[in-house]
Amino acid sequence: MTTSLDPAPPPTTAAPRHRWRDAALLGGALPFVLVALARSTAFAEGDTYWQITTGAEVLARRTTALVEDDSWNAAGTPWHPNSWGYDVLVDLAWRLGGWAGLGWFTVLTVSLVGVAVVVVGRRLGAAAPALAVVSTLAVVPLTAWLSARPQTVSYAALVLLVGLAARVLLGTGRRSALLGAAGLVGLTALWVNLHLAALGGFAAVAGGVGLAVLAGPVRTAVRERRWRDVAGQLVRPAVVVGAVGLGCLASPLGTGIVAAAGHTADESTALIDEWAPLWRAKPVLAMTWVAAALCLAVLVLAWRRAAAADRVPGWLPCWVGAVAVLVIGGVTAARFSPMAVLVALPAVAAVLPAVTPGRVPRLVRRLSWALPVAIGATVVAVALTSPGSFGRPGPLFPTAATVAAIPDGCRVLNEYDEGGLLTLLRGQDGVLVSADGRNDVYGMPALLATERLMDGADGALDTLTAAGVGCLLLTPDRPLVAQAVAAGWAVTARDDARVLLVAP
Fold first, then answer.
1. DSSP structural state of residue 357
2. Membrane spanning segments where (predicted)?
3. Are residues 379 and 410 in the same domain?
4. How many CB atoms are closer than 10 A to CB 385?
5. Cβ–Cβ contacts within 10 Å for residue 76, how many?
6. Which domain, by its residues, includes 475?
7. Co-location of 334 and 427 in the same domain
8. What is the pLDDT of residues 220-242, one digit of tens each?
């Protein structure tokens, strides 16, 4: 059984009496908006802070070829930010609104993910209630991934890219191919300058296009050895993949993007949770992969049922291929699993009526109100209990008073996630950190070495003294804290998350 690459029939227009309901649900994007508000109230993303200072540096120096000068551990190291465009945007949000600006920037970027899911889902024929229910269920494992980080922008771009690639692949005529290719190049070029994760988009599109080609007319032409027809059928798929590949090269790194991505991966696997393979992933990360695998199973089931009726929509093989590539990627690195879930959501919502019993659509319509309302009530409750925390560092970070207590010009041995915050708030005072989340700058050997120091390795205090380190900002249970106190280091500040010690 082969599939047709003819365009899927246009989605039916909802009855006027349902339009107000769809509008109230924001077409299905409401769960993402609510999660965005929750994440902005309980801010827990440490990388955002060094991205703010990086964006300011890019604007000041008018180049993306930078030299590390915020730390004592890697001073003088040349580096290139892998999200320079995003860094500039988050810096502008900080300049315009401070903590509140950072909070609203988070709301905007996370909400854009929901908008992308809705736009593509509606194009595939998914109803707003189905999108609302599927999205609400999906944001449970995705909440940890949705925050003020360049990956969030990548999620929205990836969903749109796969949707546009499928549309161009199913199109007809030279004009649609040229316009579609231009759109793919433009979208990918924008994405790669916001975040180098655009390479993941290339892999997903290539996988989707490849499966669509193998499942479509090319399969029949190969069996019948009609090679001229095969060549003709491959032109448009080659245009789609080539356009996305060309867009990936439209960054200051050019062809160096592949080496840069490989370097980041190499320096991340051993220490960074989201780069961990599935067998080492934390439960919440493994749960995201399971959700992605379930989404893929739903799409495969829908394909089989549609094939049995000889009514496979042309876009379905493309989606199955794209999601499958990302699910496989999630086995080796957890960060690909949320990408797989988000790409799958529009398609899962579209095929939901075909893979569920007849009574389910009525249940979906009811849940489309109940689930977002439940999440909304939770978000409002959180917001009302801590209205002053909007956009501000959450309880996992040291307080402003603790950060302010660091002496000017001090070299600090700090926990990995908070270096960016220290640089943002105290960098102008000459405070230098040991690390700030840029593992590709410091290198895994240096990061592991500082971890050993914090864990009280033999001679740790002597090593720090030789490096000119005069401050420790660590969690109270670090063995080095007890060693420092015994050696006469003074505790000058303390909060629920950190203790600050200054050398005698």
1. -
2. 99-120, 127-146, 152-170, 177-196, 202-222, 234-263, 283-303, 315-333, 339-355, 367-386
3. no
4. 9
5. 7
6. 400-502
7. no
8. 655 655 555 555 567 888 999 99
CA distances from 126 to 113, 119, 308, 351, 492 (A): 17, 10, 21, 8, 58
Residues linked to residue 493 through DSSP beta bridges, in sequence order: 500
Helix, strand or coil for residue 412?
strand
Q: Does residue 450 lie within any of the structural domains?
A: yes
Helical axes 150-170 vs 315-332, angle rounded to 10°:
150
Any domain includes 123: yes
Whether residue 389 lies inside any domain: the answer is: no
- By DSSP bridging, strand 66-67 and strand 490-494 are unpaired
The CA-to-CA distance between both ends of the chain, in Å, stands at 78
Q: What is the residue-averaged pLDDT of the chain? A: 85
Q: Are residues 178 and 108 in the same domain?
A: yes
pLDDT at 199 over 90: yes
Ordered DSSP codes for 248-317: HT-STTGGGHHHHHHHHHHTTTTT-GGGS-GGG--HHHHHHHHHHHHHHHHHHHHHHHHHHTT---THHH
Backbone angles phi, psi at 459, to 5 degrees: 75, 15
pLDDT of residue 132: 83
- Cα–Cα distances (Å) from 117 to 128, 421, 429, 474, 495, in that order, read 11, 32, 44, 40, 41
Q: CA-to-CA distance for 200 and 206, rounded, in angstroms?
A: 10
Separation CA 80–CA 441 (nearest Å): 9
Please tell me whether residues 376 and 419 are part of one structural domain: no
- The span from the CA of 235 to the CA of 486, in Å, is 72
Whether 221 and 182 share a structural domain: yes
Q: Which string of DSSP letters, residue by residue, matches 219-242? A: HHHHHTT-HHHHHHHHHHHHHHHH
Query: In terms of domains, do 70 and 135 share one?
Result: yes
Token digits of residue 169: 């692949």
Question: CB neighbours of 471 closer than 8 A, spacing ≥ 6?
Answer: 406, 407, 410, 411, 412, 413, 500, 501, 502, 503
Rounded distance between C-alpha atoms, residue 466 and residue 478, angstroms: 21
User: 């604007």: which residue's tokens?
Assistant: 59
Among 423, 426, 467, which residue's Cα sits nearest to residue 435? 423
- Out of 357, 383, 409, pick the residue that ends a domain: 383
Please indicate, yes or no, whether residues 158 and 59 belong to a single structural domain of this protein: yes
Phi, psi of 42 (to 5 degrees): -115, 75
pLDDT at 14 over 50: no
E strand segments, 42-186: 66-67, 78-79
Distance CA(127)–CA(130), nearest Å, equals 5
pTM of the model: 0.88
CA distances from 15 to 108, 258, 347 (A): 30, 48, 22
Q: Dihedrals φ, ψ of 243, to 5°?
A: -65, -40
- Both 341 and 488 in one domain: the answer is no
Distance CA 408, CA 403 (A): 11
Is 431 domain-assigned? Answer: yes
Domain count for the chain: 2
Of the three residues 349, 383, 417, the one that is the final residue of a domain is 383
Q: What is the pLDDT of residues 399-431, one digit of tens each?
A: 999 999 999 999 999 998 899 999 999 999 999
